[in-house]
Design a protein that fits this description.
single chain, alpha+beta, GMP Synthetase, Chain A, domain 3, 3-stranded mixed beta sheet, 3 strands, ribosomal small subunit binding, cytoplasm, ribosome biogenesis
């Protein structure tokens, strides 16, 4: 189990670098972050949860851009991370950061009203 976690973290780190520095797709904003990456035990599939700041249209465009670049990202990870199989990548949208910001804003508004 520890090995899979270590590989997941390495893939996540490399994938972040690739997304931020090497993808030239205009649909991708600079405000994309990988929140979580889970790899199956056989290392065949990786589910990548990404957070995109922006409107719903920007989020769907960014997700489409990432999906279209999945082959390039997979090939680059295969070159950079020394593992037998490079996992097939599936991107999912993660709204947890936005939900956290919304809850924080509600708490702040409530505390101001109480004063």
């Amino acid at each position: 189990m520890e090995r899979i976690e270590r590989i997941s973290e390495e893939i996540k780190r490399e994938m972040s670098t690739i997304i931020q520095n090497e993808l030239k797709d205009p649909r991708l904003s600079k405000l994309i972050s990988i929140t979580h990456l889970s790899v199956t035990k056989d290392l065949r599939y990786a589910k990548v949860y990404v957070s995109v700041m922006g409107s719903d249209e920007e989020k769907s465009n960014a997700l489409e851009g990432l999906k279209s670049a999945a082959g390039f990202i997979r090939r680059e990870i295969g070159r950079r991370v020394q593992i037998r199989y490079t996992p097939e990548i599936h991107f999912e949208l993660d709204n947890s950061i936005e939900k956290g910001a919304y809850i924080t804003r509600l708490i702040n508004e409530t505390s101001v009203e109480d004063k």
